[in-house]
Sequence to fold (233 residues):
Amino acid sequence: QTLWVNVTNPLTGCFGVIPIQIKVNESPRMPDLADLVYCDEDSNNQNAITTVNLAQQTPIILAAQTIPPTSNYTVTYYTSLANAQAQINPIVNTTTYTGTNQTIWVVIENNTTGCTEIGEFNLIVNIPLAITPPPALSVCDDDANPNDLHTTFDLTVRNNDITTGLPYTVTYYPSYANALAGINQITNPTAYINVPPAVQTLGVMVTTPQGCRSYTTMDIRVLPVPTPNETNI
Fold:
């Protein structure tokens, strides 16, 4: 819009008129950002601190802009509102940020106009269940083929011991390596027949309602049954 300014000298009555252009630039758009939810599954999985990728919010923010191209914008992240407002001390390693349960502030700036908008989202780091190997599960080899060092186990009888009674999901694997890799899951844990004879170390994965996983092992043992001596007396 053009405004006209009249400047008058009150003594002489002389005046001049000049135009002034005023322009209102559109601010960038800041969408409602969903929280980023992670599981603490690193080497120290009980401190709720882990590596996260904050930059996954960037394309969502850029997609909300109405003035192309998106390369005209800069998105930066901050650990406090004060820093975001002053645009100081931005988070540098946005793709490998070591974070915990906290609020992250984000600023989008139009590089041409300098206009900015501030948003926020929560970073949530859930911890998996801390577990230790449960007691070994021992079963007598008194099935149809006794003392062949193989028998049927109901692995689920150890679920409560493993989860301490919490409503978490317990999954069993033939080995600890299989559990870590998420392969060869035992699909019928109520009727599992050991593969190595006598003793087998299974892998166990516990999954929380938030999807956080922790791992341990469990031994299953086949106990021999005594064979009576049928010698006549």
In short: Residues 81 and 105 are 6 Å apart (CA to CA). The helical segments are 58-63, 81-86, 159-163, 176-181. The longest strand covers residues 116-126.
